[in-house]
Amino acid sequence: MVSAPLDGKERLALMYAMFHMDSLEPFKFDWKWLAPSGLSTKDFIAPSSFEFRENRSFRIGKKYASVSFLQILAPELEDRMLAEFLSMESSLVVSMHIQSLDQMEAIKTIKRRITDLDKSKIEEQKKAVRSGYDMDIIPSDLATYGTAAKALLQELQSRNERMFRLTFLVMNTADTKRQLDNILLQAKGIAQQNNCALVPLDFQQEGGMVACLPLGKNPIEIHRELTTSATAIFVPFTTQELPVLRPERPVQ
After folding, report:
1. Contacts of 105 (CB under 8 A, 6+ apart)
2. Are 162 and 156 in contact (CB under 8 A)?
3. Backbone φ and ψ of 130, nearest 5°
């Protein structure tokens, strides 16, 4: 895949395509039309109607749509998940909001989590002693989270990893409500195969739709903190280093 920046007109054309999936009318727009007509860019891309009556779905014109967030449960991710989402035989929009965190603040946050986990571990050990059990027996989730947090701290401190805050959203669309339900089941199955969960946004469908538009706005405050290598799994672009061309020295 090749990434490229969008100018204003290309961005409007993309939003027009998202809002008019049920129409074959091509996008028509020119910046010089705005002043004489008194219209704004919204008038050229707005659909016939929006309907946000349901808690987990909405309508854009005649199309049904639903926005879900990816709940990342797997300790390690594979790049095939994004490819499987994009290979679905249905119309969908995948949106990723990635924010870099300050390195020192990220390390402090992980250390606080380790301290909280150690505190919980001590509390569980005290309960085990009072109940006459072996104090080394603690809940498996607590042990797993503690090991993962310490491994994450080591990666940040010694492996040149950075911390990123990721919001992964998927907007599925269909012609009917039944088709939308079937598509959502298929998308959830793909997420489950990769030890993740695709969860519809309850009563946040409008905010989810805004987050899926190419505007850089994310009103959804649901995110997962990932390292550089884990975040790179979701970025399907490759970079190629070009050699620096130096001017030849004149022959003396």
Report:
1. none
2. yes
3. -65, -30
Token couple for 199: 């969860």
Rounded to an integer, what distance in angstroms lies between the CA atom of residue 19 and that of residue 69?
A: 20
DSSP code, position 251 = P
Question: pTM score > 0.90 for this model?
Answer: no
Distance, CA of 103 to CA of 161 (rounded, Å): 9
pLDDT of the residue at 237: 55
CB 159: neighbour CB atoms within 10 A?
10
**Is residue 247's pLDDT more than 60?**
no
Two tokens at 181? 């339900």
CA distance 174 to 242: 43
| Amino acid code (one letter) for 123 | E
Task: Label residues 12-49 b or e (16+ Cβ within 10 Å = b).
Answer: bbbbbebbbbeeeeeeeeeeeeeeeeeeeeeebbebee
